[in-house]
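Input:
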Amino acid sequence: MNALNVAEYMHTLGLQARQASARMASASAAEKSSALRALAALLRANVASLQSDNAKDIERATAAGLTAPMVDRLKLTPKIIETLAVGCEQLATMPDIIGEVIGMKQQPSGIRVGQMRVPLGVFGMIFESRPNVTIEAASLSIKSGNACILRGGSEAIESNKALARLVQQALADAGLPSEAVQLVQTTDREAVGHLIAMPESVDVIIPRGGKGLIERISREAKVPVIKHLDGNCHTYVDDPCDLALAVRVTDNAKTQKYSPCNASEGLLVARGVARAFLPQIGAVFAAKGVEMRCDAEAGAILREVADANVQEATEQDWSEEYLAPIISVKVVAGIDEAIAHINRYSSHHTDAILTRDHVHAQRFLREVDSASVMVNTSTRFADGFEYGLGAEIGISTDKFHARGPVGLEGLTSLKWIVLGNGEVRT
Amino acid sequence: MNALNVAEYMHTLGLQARQASARMASASAAEKSSALRALAALLRANVASLQSDNAKDIERATAAGLTAPMVDRLKLTPKIIETLAVGCEQLATMPDIIGEVIGMKQQPSGIRVGQMRVPLGVFGMIFESRPNVTIEAASLSIKSGNACILRGGSEAIESNKALARLVQQALADAGLPSEAVQLVQTTDREAVGHLIAMPESVDVIIPRGGKGLIERISREAKVPVIKHLDGNCHTYVDDPCDLALAVRVTDNAKTQKYSPCNASEGLLVARGVARAFLPQIGAVFAAKGVEMRCDAEAGAILREVADANVQEATEQDWSEEYLAPIISVKVVAGIDEAIAHINRYSSHHTDAILTRDHVHAQRFLREVDSASVMVNTSTRFADGFEYGLGAEIGISTDKFHARGPVGLEGLTSLKWIVLGNGEVRT
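Output:
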C-alpha cells in the first residue's frame, strides 16, 4: 500500500469499528456469550489449519534469523489454542458488567440520579509477536461490548489473519457485526501512526510490548493510552516484623519468577532487624544465585554470608528493573526513609511492607504512591486474576482512568442516568 | 521574562507542586477543613483590599476597551467574595473522600484485595477572566488533597494574585505547604505551553473557557485533559407521553436560561404526538420569542401558531449549540429515529426522553451515547450540585476517567491495597 492508501484503509477500519460499536453496546449478554462460545468452538475445530498458517510465520521468522526465544513466542501449539478456547469460555460465563446501574439516589429536586456502566466504544490494541494476544484482545472486546482494531506484529501476520477470520465468523454466527473486531491487514508501519490519531473513531489505545514502543505511542497518541511502562517493585522489611514470614515472602517476591513486572527488584530493610534478617535472606539468595547490589551497610552484613554474590550498588541500581536474578538491597532507618525511597525510585507499580506494626502498615498503604500497595504479602500477587478481576486487559502504571491491574471495567465508562417525573429546574 | 526564564519558572512551580502534593495526600481531613475555614475568614477580612486590587484590573480592562459584559465578569464584588467564602465553608463540612476503602474482598489465595481513594497528585487549571475561579479551584484542590497550579487570564492578574496570596496564607495557617496552590505569576503566553507539557510534575489539565482554547489545549497537552467542549443537548418527546409534562419540561429545558451548556438546543417529536404537542410548545416559544428552526413537517404545523418565528432548518442546525433563544425542531418516526439522530448530532453531553413507554425509556437510557441521559425531566438538571456531588470541577464531554458532571472524585484515583498474612504466590 502507498501512504495515501494506508490512510484511507485505516480511516475505513475506523468508520466500520465506530458503526459496529453501537450495535455491540446494545448487544445482550446472551449474544456476547454466544459469540465467545462460537469462537471457542471454531478455535478447537481449526487447530490444524491454524497451525499450518502459523507455520508460514515460523518459517519466515527462522529464515530471517530470529532468535529461538523470539521464534518460540510466535508458536501456536495445540496446547496454546486450547488455552485460548478455554479463556473464551470462561469469559462467556462471567457476569456481564454492561448496563449495571450504581448509586441511584433521589436528590432534593425529586430526580433520581445514578450511573450506568457502558462500553468505552472502540479501542485499538498494538502488540508484538505473540499471536494469542489477537484472541485475548478480541474476546475481552466482545465481552465488554466494545469494538476494537488490532494491530499485531508483522512477524505473526499470517497467524493473526487466520485467528481474526475465526473471530469474525464467530461474531457473524452470533448475529453480531463482524467489524466489531478488525485486524489491520497491512504490516505497513504507517498504519500505527493513523490508528493512534483517529479520535473520531478510536477512543483509547492499549499498547503491549517493549518500553520503547509504549513510550513512542504515548508520546504520539491523540487519544488516551492505557499503558504499562516498568515494574521496579520493592519489598520493605520493617521493624518489628515476623522474620520467618519476611524471609518466605521476600524470597517469593524476588525468585518465584524473575521475568514478571511484579517481581521485587529492590529490598529495603529497617536497621533494627537488618542484623537478624539479612543473613537469612542472604543465604536464600546465595543458594539461588541471586546477585545482591548493596549499600555499604547491607553489604557489610551480606558479605559474611557463605557464597553470597554481593556487589556495591550504584545510584542507577535503585531505579533498575532487572527482570533477572539480581536485587538491590539497602538498609534504612525505618518507615519514613522506606516510604521516601520508594516514592522517589519506585516505578509506582507495586510495593509491599512486611511488618507487625499497625501504624506503619496504615502509613505505608496511605503514603506510598503506587498502583498496588501491600502488607505482609508478595508483590508477585499484583495481577488481575489474583485480584479477582476474572480477566486482565493489562497493568496500568498511570493514575488516570485505570490504575494497576485493569479488568473489563477499564474498557467501560460510567454515564449518568436521571429519572424524573416532570421535574423542572427553577 | 524571556523564554528561557519562563521555562525555568514553570519547571520550578512544577517541582514545588509535586513536593507539596505528597504532604497534601497525607493531610488529615481536619487539616484540610482548617485551611478552608481559614481561607473563608481571610476572604471576609480582606474585602476592601481585594476590591482595591480588583479595581486595577477593571481600570486596565476599561482602558483597553473591553466590552461591558467582559469587564463585568472581572468584578469581585462584596457579594461575590461572600459567596466564595461560603463555598469554602461548605467544602470544609463535606465528607472527606480521601482514604476511603472500597470493595475489600478475600481472594482464593487468602489475600484481601480492595481499593483506596487517593488524590491524583497535581492538576493544572487554565481559565479566563473570572477571578473567582482562583478560589473555586484552590478550594477543590485543598479538599481533594491535591496540589494545583493555576493559570488565570492576564486581564485578572492583579485580582488573582491577591486571591492566591490569601490561599497560601490559609494553607500556611493550617500547617500545610503554601506551594500546594500556586498561581502562575507571569502573563507570558508561553507559560501555558509548559504547564500542559510537564508530565513529571502535572498529572492532569483542566481548561475552562472558550471552545477554541480548550481544543488547542487538548491538542497540545502531553498529559490527560478533563475537558468540556460543547453542549448540543436534545429533548425527545415520545409517543406516548404526558403532553402537559412534555410542554412544561421542554419549556424549562430551552427557556429557563439560554446560556448554560445543558439547555436543550434540539427538540425531536414523535410523529404520533406531533399534531397534539407542537402547537402547544409552539405557543410557549412564540410568547417567549424563541425562534424555531424546523424540518418541513414540524414547520408546517408550527407555522399555524400565532406569532411563531419559524425558520427552515439547515443541516448545520442539527449540530448547533445556539446558547440563545433558538431551537431546532424535527419530527421523527419514533424512538429508533430519535436515538439515531441524537447519536449522530448530539455533542454527547445531555439528552432526555419524555415518555410513558417503559421499553422506550430503557432503550433510550441504554442506547443514547451521552454523558447524561434522562427520562421525563429537564436537561437543565445536568449539573454537579443537582446530582448531589456537593462540588463541581466541571462537566466532562469525554468518556475516559470522568464523564458528565465531575465532582471531587474526578480529582482522585483508586489504588489497589492488598492485605496478607504471609501468603506467597505458587
